[in-house]
Predict the structure.
Amino acid sequence: MGTRRFDVTEHLSEEALDRAINEAQMADEARLVRRLCFVKNLYAGDVLEEAARRVGVSQANSSRWAHAWNDAGVDGLRPSFGGGRPPKLSDTQFAELCDILEEGQPWTPQEIHTLIKDRYGVTYDPAHLSRKLRESGMHYAKPRPMDPRSPDDADEILAERLDQALGEETSGKTKEEEPIVFGFFR
């Protein structure tokens, strides 16, 4: 067991520290709760190593947390994240990419990667790029000229259903005269 003592600044009384822990629990701030429990262990007389072991943290983190507590109290222990790495493409660039992809369909994943690299000078991991494209509402699948599950008389079935849906005879019309219908027919 280590014997490295650390002089802890008592920014809060033990009761106030308990209230801060409860408030952090109610606010679902698990990281802050853990750090405040570490400080509570220091208040109880634990050395850094023992207080760190009780909350399951490394020696380096325990020292950093103790100094943060001494410098700024609860606010010093509150996790502060910088928001992560900035995106490689701005929102405008990504919207432009989505427009390009929609206009020039179909695209293979390799073509999309080449387009991004040539146009914007950045690369994406394939898994991340497909995740970003799915989040923006794009999906890709293997293009097939004919659905293998379709019946042999699919064209006749479609013509019949169109006749039923439109209430008119379309079989005698030319290609230019036939109506174009979008939707689902049962």
